[in-house]
Each structure stands twice: as structure tokens, then as C-alpha cells.
Design brief:
seven-stranded antiparallel sheet; disordered N terminus; 7 strands; alpha+beta; elongated; Jelly Rolls; 434 Repressor (Amino-terminal Domain)
Length: 218
């Protein structure tokens, strides 16, 4: 009996604890990938093309492209040439390899407030998080529509938007359809189509809006 309990305990310790999300497991960045990201980032900050930097570092365009894409392990001599061409210490090229896990903490009522004007008067946006890196931008807002707010269905931007109704009641339009949102209701949609509150049934109202889009790396 004791032996059976020990086996059960061993099995429980081996379990990986995960969330209910289908997101793939986070993978560690390799040194080659981190170097490539850093070289590309500095090159773009200096407004240099791949050809410009390759010429200044006396390496081929193909090699530089492979370095930026993390496909090869460049020699120290090559990295030194690239660093010299970028006018940075060689250690700067390795700085991106230091693992970072960004986090944004905003205390209650201390988010950046954005007050709308014109046809969107009475629409207040409180940005609840900011400053994270990566290929994807996530902008969480607490939106408040005051008593003086007027409907506006002309919002249109890249990405995907998720709404979660907290208080009040609204008829929300997305493209050619409208949705009756009450507290606890949620809506997620392609934000490239025209959208916005069409009929403000119960004001004031508040809802959480999370906008997700790809970061422009040009």
C-alpha cells in the first residue's frame, strides 16, 4: 500500500501544470536568433539596407541575411566587422540574448486617459497596459461612454478586437450586423471592418476593449 502511494506521488510530481489556453509552449531564444534580431534592429534604427551594412562590414548580402534570420553562427571576426560598421561595441550585439519577460502593471484609475473629441465626444479610453515588446501589440482599454456620448460606428483599424461589457447596455455594430450587449456579454471581431456603438441604450456604460495587431517592423 505504501509503495502504491509512493508511485502515485511520483506521478503527480511529473505532471506539467498548464493553463486552458491552446497557446504553444514558450521556447527559449537561441544565441543565433538573438544576434540576428539585434543586428536587424540596429540596422533599421540607422536606416541602413541589408546591402548597405553588408558592404560596410565587408561580408556578402547572403551572409548578412542568414545572420539576421538566425540561420548561422557567425565568427567573432564577422561580428566584430558588423559591430564596427554599426558603430556599436560588439557586446551590444549580444545584449538581446539576455532573456526578458516584459510585464506591465497599472494601478486602479492610473491608466493613461484618452478623451475623444468631435463626433466621438463622451468616449473616454483608459489604457490599462503598455510597453511590451514582441511581434504582436496588445492594447487593453477600459472604455467609458458618458451621458453625453453619441453613437459612432466608423471605427476601423488593423487587427482583432475583443469587447467585454461591464455596465450599461448598447447595440454594437460590426460591418452589416448589430449585437445587443449587456453586462457579461462579449464580442470578438475583425476590426478592419467598420464598427462601434450604434445605439446607447443605458448610459453611462463601461466595457473592456482589447485590441491585438501585428507590430510594424518596417
Amino acid at each position: 500500500m505504501a509503495e502504491r502511494k509512493a508511485k502515485v506521488a511520483d506521478q503527480s510530481e511529473a505532471v506539467d501544470y498548464v493553463t486552458g489556453s491552446n497557446a504553444p509552449a514558450a521556447s527559449a531564444s537561441t544565441l543565433e536568433h538573438a544576434l540576428g534580431v539585434q543586428v536587424r534592429s540596429i540596422r533599421r534604427q540607422l536606416d541602413l539596407t541589408v546591402s548597405d551594412l553588408a558592404g560596410a562590414a565587408s561580408i556578402s548580402v547572403g551572409m548578412l541575411s542568414k545572420i539576421e534570420n538566425g540561420q548561422i553562427s557567425p565568427s567573432l571576426a564577422t561580428l566584430q566587422s558588423i559591430a564596427k560598421a554599426l558603430n556599436v561595441p560588439i557586446t551590444t550585439l549580444f545584449s538581446a540574448f539576455e532573456e526578458r519577460r516584459d510585464c506591465s502593471f497599472v494601478r486602479a484609475h492610473q491608466g493613461v486617459i484618452i478623451e475623444r473629441r468631435g463626433t466621438k465626444v463622451g468616449h473616454q479610453y483608459e489604457l490599462l497596459g503598455h510597453g511590451l515588446g514582441g511581434d504582436i501589440v496588445v492594447e487593453p482599454y477600459l472604455i467609458t461612454l458618458s451621458e453625453e456620448a453619441t453613437p459612432y460606428t466608423g471605427f476601423r483599424h488593423a487587427g482583432v478586437e475583443f469587447l467585454y461589457m461591464l455596465s450599461g447596455e448598447v447595440m454594437y455594430r460590426h460591418a452589416d450586423r448589430t449585437y445587443h450587449l449587456r453586462p457579461g456579454d462579449s464580442l470578438m471581431f475583425d476590426s478592419g471592418a467598420a464598427h462601434g456603438p450604434e445605439e446607447l441604450i443605458v448610459r453611462p456604460m463601461t466595457y473592456l476593449s482589447v485590441i491585438v495587431y501585428a507590430r510594424d517592423t518596417r
